[in-house]
Design brief:
Layout: H1 4-16, H2 19-26, H3 30-44, E1 49-51, E2 57-59, H4 61-89, E3 93-99, H5 101-104, H6 107-116, E4 122-128, H7 131-139, E5 145-148, E6 157-161, E7 165-166, E8 168-172, E9 192-196, H8 201-211, E10 218-223, H9 226-234, E11 239-242, H10 244-249, E12 255-259, E13 265-266, E14 269-273, H11 280-296
Parallel strand pairs: 3-4, 3-5, 9-10, 9-11
Antiparallel strand pairs: 1-2, 5-14, 6-14, 7-13, 8-11, 8-12
Helix pairs in contact: 1-2, 1-3, 1-4, 2-3
Length: 297
Amino acid sequence: MLNQRQIEAFRAVMVSGGITTAATAMRISQPAVSRLIRDLEARIGVTLFERRPGGRLRPTADAAALFQDVERYFVSLEQINQSAAGLKRRSRGTLRVASLPALYVDWLPRFIGRFLAHRPDLDIELIGNSSEALLELVSSGRCDIAFVDTPFDHPRIRREELTGVAAVAVVPAAHPLAGKPTLSPADFAADPFVSIARATQLRTRIDAFFLSQGVHRQLGPETPLSLIACSLVAAGGGLAIVDPFTAAAVRDAAVCFKPLEPRIEVRFSLVTPLNTGLSGPAQDFVLGIRREFAQFA
């Protein structure tokens, strides 16, 4: 087994070019450096330096070959030290985040951008898919954090329901309803209604919103994405109801967004693997998400 101090002395001589400067860098005496080099040569059975007049050393070809491996070792050691320091600062590692489209399209990437601004050594992989597919990613350990809107009970997943947020109406900017402060179910009766796809939490709550008031909609186009619903409204396809995160992503002057009365509450869940603890960066990420959701409440 090679001695760590001998390797350090060898590297110091190779980097600095001599015994004197190596001794200064290591803060030991010149004879101590010479002894470490001799002991290293004796241990490995190879001459690493040719001794020249005046005590000068000239590296051999074997020394040059060994130095390449020593440098790789020290670089790796430094990387490990940096990684450990980054873990302590909760700023290093890889975080795999997945979400359904409502958050994935605009709001979540913006949050991640702000989150990474102070964590340049953290890598985040962002995945978009349906809630059902995301549950499979989390349960199989292929994802650290995911956002879903489907109520579920899974033996390998931990679920935290985030603060509920209020859905909003999407109305053409030139429509008479654009002048009203809030919209009720009855306000939608005279126009085609752009629906979100069935089997989603939002669609279920929208249907209940109208049923509770006995309002029958004129059903128009149907789309799986709230962002597409907003585009359809902008093009004159009717009225719609979407989540507030999608509404915040739309920058189209052809539509405006109105609060609803009664309120339609949209709930998303943050899910993580049950049997795996969250890393430091993941814990910070979750805390930030909670604060962001509270602002939309």
